Amino acid sequence: MDQYLQLALEEARLGLAEGGIPIGSVIVHQGRVLGRGHNRRVQQGSAILHGEMDAFENAGRQPAHIYQQSVLYTTLSPCPMCTGAILLYGIPRVVIGENQTFLGDEALLRARGVQVEVLQDAACVALMRDFIRDHPDLWNEDIGQP
After folding, report:
1. Is this structure's pTM higher than 0.90?
2. From 13, 24, 31, 139, which residue has the greatest number of CB atoms within 10 Å?
3. 121-131, pLDDT tens digit by residue?
């Protein structure tokens, strides 16, 4: 497994251990981790702290050119909100652990010129399948389903 996806998976597992939704993300600039995070909606009662959003928050304020030279790694296909943040900050490449359990707005990312790579990593798939099976109400809430 790619070392940065491994870090994102560690974040996802940390979120699960905290009682949250196991999605993790890492933002990398020229081999240096700018920010890493995991979904903290449950833990912090947040409406927006998805894994990618937490990684952006933890990366802090960066000059535009830094984001435009960075790669975002995420264990799960980005939702519309996280896709918007990726586009807003001009992230040129996104590496996704898996999109079998949830297909986000990858088409929009590609249409806007973002290089999208989906790895279909078995550990990422298993983590989300188990979570969705064990916590369907929490999962549906997180993705905005009734």
Report:
1. yes
2. 24
3. 999 999 999 99
